[in-house]
Write a structure and sequence with these properties.
By secondary structure, the chain is of the alpha+beta class. Helices cover 47% and strands 21% of the residues. The chain contains 15 helices and 17 strands. The longest helix has 34 residues.
Amino acid sequence: MINTIISSSILILMVIAIRFLFKGRINPLLQYGLWGLVTLRLVVFSWLNIHPIESVLSVMNIVSKAEETMRGASAVDQVIAGNASAKIIDNAVLILDNVRTGVVTSGDGISTAAAIDWQLILMIIWAIGTIVFCIGLIFVNRRFGNMIIKNRKFLMPISVNKKRKTLPVYVVEGLDSPCILGYKGEEAIYVTSEVALDEEKLHYAITHELCHYKHNDLIWSVVRVGLLAFYWFNPLVWIAAIMSKRDCELACDYGVIKELGEEYRIIYGETLMDLISLREHKPNVFCTATTMYGSSKGIKERIVWIAKKRKMRIATLVTVILLAILAVVGTFTEATNSSNDLDNMEKTNNTVIITTDVNSYSPMMSSGSGGIKMTPVFNSKNAYTKLEYHWITDEGEFISSFSHLGKEVNNQGETVLWSAVENDKVIDIKSSFEIRLEVIDGVSKKILANTKLTIKPNEIFYEVEKQN
């Protein structure tokens, strides 16, 4: 989730930068479509977490390097072991680990703040914020919808496409601007009483709202507020919602002019200025209706675009597409050290060896433990809150005082006993074989280190030959 927040935030900044650099020179539909990349990144976070795609161009490489530097500067493993008091950077690493994994670390020398379950606290705050947002969302849209239903009067039906589908058009007293709204199972166009009395204004207003309908903007409005409900804590998502709604109107203006013809560009622009006041309107991102008004800055941008009649150059199109591809590669992917490289990096900081109580053993011996006792010794420069040890033998079995454990054993680092028996019978092993050990992070399930013993049969003895 943290990676999604970082990557999506950077993607939003990149889209804003593209929008600013090519302001007025991009096709409005393309400009509006760039926000679809942000939507996709925010929606598919779960899938990307399960199926991460690595890239050297990922912005997460920078984040990973920064985190690696911070961990390298800390002595958090010594703090957990009780050999040092936690400094600010050590507590920061512990808090970061808690937010990522939910594992709380406490002990002597660790600050009270680092011993708090911040992941749980943040999840509670997020849940409360989401519930409050949803309540506000429902309230705003129900109040707006009920006001429209209460004050509307049927004007006429309007054809949507060649399949003879129609939308009803209503006149609403007290409405600020023409809009299209889906409410209580009915999608309809609503116009002000002023617009209804002017045939030309009515024509342009209906054409504008039909463009919204054809662009599926009612669906995108719901997606927009849904993502706001989920990511309400991220101010950049709010900025993206406001700017995408502004670009939605600009794309609709483009659609109207394309449908009416270039000769109507200036007339439509003048009508638009009459339809929507240039006084400041705070964009209501809560509302799912596609109202024509917006902030004065947004309205001026639309009027300027209509007046300039600027077409997008091929070079601009190619540049924007290349920048968009770069943005996707950089923000839809993970750091190259997120899996294999990270494992390799961790393994260079981790070592494990197997110590044995004897160098040779024979099932014929009457004294001794009845096998070879093997104890793992794990050393690491990193701190881990939970470790798992996975033992595997190709021959014989691991046994205990009470039972046969089989060829595989999982424990928390206790000594294991290997014996040349299988199914309660002593076996005769003819060739060398291996006993392997993997040390696994109990939280991330990554293999931190591994090693193996080679045992060689020598007449009636089994000798520990070497360890790699």
